[in-house]
Design brief:
The chain is built from two helices and 18 strands. The chain is mostly beta strands. Strands 1-3-4-6-7-8-9-10-11-12-13-14-15-16-17-18 form a 16-stranded antiparallel beta barrel. Strand 16 and strand 17 form a beta hairpin. The longest helix has 19 residues.
């Protein structure tokens, strides 16, 4: 018994020494609220409690260790949670992010699974920060953000995230310039292109001006020797913070290599208006012009969709806020965007809820 206690004491001492060399943080977001959604289904409107409307609910662990000479080791393990029923999100244990890497004067290199650069791009420029509307996905539900490349015949990415990927982030001392690069392995035997994903962000932010470019390309896994369908998106955004308001414009062109090639252009104008330290209003107007042909036998196209959205946030503290938003989408007869139950259906959504960060 005495030996057991001695061993335990020694283990505790060594464990304490190990933890003293590094830091580990437990963090998370708990977000839930009411959603009323009319997506054109015959049964009528959905009224439900929904998790992760302003931000996806999550539990995360992140840590860093100083290796000396300016070099650090870093890791993040972040799982998605559905507060409304207590289940796991993203269909995997750490589906939001699971990365390990090194950082230093050269920047940061991470290995694993994370948001695509284009998803991160919309987190920065979307007034709704990829939340509030469109079932908590913000403008990223209108634009192509990647995460569609397939790996070994299964969807190992999904939801604007790339698995089996290498990420590079430039250091933060480049006078307002920054970049993010991502390469995701398709892991297909004998074919380095099938299932591969690529991403790039370029950004300049200084003195209120914020200009960015994002590129994303996802290669579909070739089936039975068939061709790879590569889908790509090029996105531009610019905003300026006047203090009393922060307007933004966003443009994206999407195309692919399918037999009926996607030909889509999306435009957004938006604004964030902070009335004071606790109140702010958000608004966007988006126009999707989808010129994708309906079939090889006709020149008819999918057509247009238009969305107007407005939101409000009241901040109680640095950790807790209330939010509300309304979005209305109208579209042409052959368009079926933002979760419409049938082609041509208008979609109207009202949300409000509470978010707590820890």
């Amino acid at each position: 018994m005495k030996k057991s206690f001695l061993a335990l004491a020694l283990m505790s001492a060594f464990s304490g020494a190990a933890f003293a060399q590094s830091s580990v943080t437990i963090y998370g977001i708990v977000d839930a609220g009411f959603q009323s959604l009319d997506n054109g289904t015959v049964a009528g409107r959905f009224n439900k409690l929904q998790s992760g409307q302003e931000n996806g609910s999550r539990l995360g662990f992140k840590g860093t260790e100083d290796l000396g000479g300016g070099l650090k080791a870093n890791f993040v393990l972040e799982m998605g949670l559905n507060v409304d029923d207590g289940s796991s999100a993203q269909g995997r244990t750490f589906g939001r992010r699971s990365t390990v890497g090194l950082s230093g004067d050269f920047g940061t290199v991470d290995l694993g699974r994370d948001k695509t650069p284009t998803f991160k791009f919309f987190d920065n420029y979307d007034p709704f920060a990829s939340g509030y509307i469109n079932s908590g996905n913000g403008l990223s539900n209108l634009y192509f953000i990647g995460g569609t490349a397939t790996v070994a015949g299964a969807n190992a990415n999904s939801g604007g995230r790339a698995s089996n990927a290498i990420y590079y982030y430039t250091p933060g001392n480049l006078n307002g310039f920054s970049a993010v690069g991502q390469y995701g392995f398709g892991e297909a035997a004998g074919d380095n292109s099938a299932g591969r994903s690529l991403g790039l962000n370029l950004r300049y932010a200084a003195n209120g001006l914020d200009i960015g470019y994002s590129f994303v390309k996802d290669n579909g896994q070739a089936l039975a020797g068939g061709p790879i369908n590569a889908r790509k998106g090029n996105t531009l955004a610019a905003s300026y913070d006047f203090g009393i308001a922060k307007p933004v414009v966003i443009y994206q062109k999407v195309s692919d290599d399918a037999a009926l090639a996607v030909d889509q252009k999306i435009y957004t104008v938006g604004v964030t208006v902070p009335f004071d330290a606790t109140n702010k209003v958000l608004a966007t107007y988006s126009n999707i012009k989808d010129s994708t042909r309906l079939s090889a036998a006709t020149t008819a196209t999918v057509g247009d969709a238009k969305q107007f959205a407005i939101g409000y946030q009241y901040t109680f503290s640095k950790r807790t806020d209330l939010y509300a938003a309304f979005a209305s989408t109208s579209q042409d007869a052959n368009s079926q965007k933002v979760g419409a139950a049938v082609k041509g259906a208008d979609v109207k959504e009202l949300t409000f809820g509470v978010r707590h960060q820890f």
